[in-house]
Amino acid sequence: MLWSPRRCIYSGLVVVTLALAATACTADKTASTSAPAALPPTAIVAAEPEPEPEPVAAVDATPEPAVAAVPEVPEVPEVPAVPETPKKVLILGDSLAATGFGALLERKLDAHPSIECARKAKSATGLARPDFYDWESEAKKQVEAKSPDLVVVIMGGNDGQDLTPKSGKGKRVAWKSDGWNTAYKTRVSDFLKEIGVDQRKVLWLGLPKSELNSFEQKLTVIRQVQSEAIAELGDAGTYLETTPFLTDSKGELLDKATVGKRKDQDLREDDGIHFTMAGSEYFADKVYPEVLRVLGVADAEPEAPAAKKKKK
After folding, report:
1. How far apart are CA 71 and CA 73, in angstroms?
2. How far apart are CA 204 and CA 311, in angstroms?
3. What is the CATH number of the domain that holds 293?
4. pTM of this prediction?
5. Residues 242-257: tens digit of each pLDDT
6. Domain interval for residue 299
């Protein structure tokens, strides 16, 4: 057979075609052993479309405000009541007010947080000798200066004598005369008017019982007249009988007593009239609650002197 170029090309194509077919066949066999056969078109089930996700509501990006913790409300402390205006007390009198008793009573009253106390006293004085010491004028001056709510008076121990006019001249009213009681009562009433009993109260302390019989006889008369004058004041005046403070259950005069924590303390000086310091303290302790009662003030713990001074 003669070789021809066209036949050669054709033969080459056949060879190449057969080679490709063999390769494809081999590939198909390999695929059939490694992968399952494809389903026929009729076996393919169309996949249902997945439902579209529901639209999510837009979330406010602004953070919610944090809830503030409610602070505990502190307990409001009770506000102390505004203290009332202190009650003012003025002590007037003779040597009993000028010495231990008057000084101790003033100290006790002034230590009370609701009381301010002042004192004016002069020994050897009374209402019988205004020419020596004019208590009417002095009382008026003191109340105008101090404006007290209560005046405590203790005097009369020097009044058992003739009543002298204020000028020192003129007729006297003799002691133990028929007109002495009336004249002396007038002097007590005039003294009370100068105190201004229409504006304040008066506590008149009955003269303490004495160890001297002759002197005690004078005091008995003086006490009686003073108490009568005070009784005419009505509610504005109080007369305090002090004899029970200084006598025992049998009416006998006490010469010793327990003062504070001290037992058997002498109450009187050698003259039998004036008090010792222990006696002054004893008597002041007895009178003090009576002053509070008339003043209408309850007892209270004493205030430190420095605090009292600062408050004034």
Report:
1. 6
2. 29
3. 3.40.50.1110
4. 0.72
5. 999 999 988 899 999 9
6. 87-311
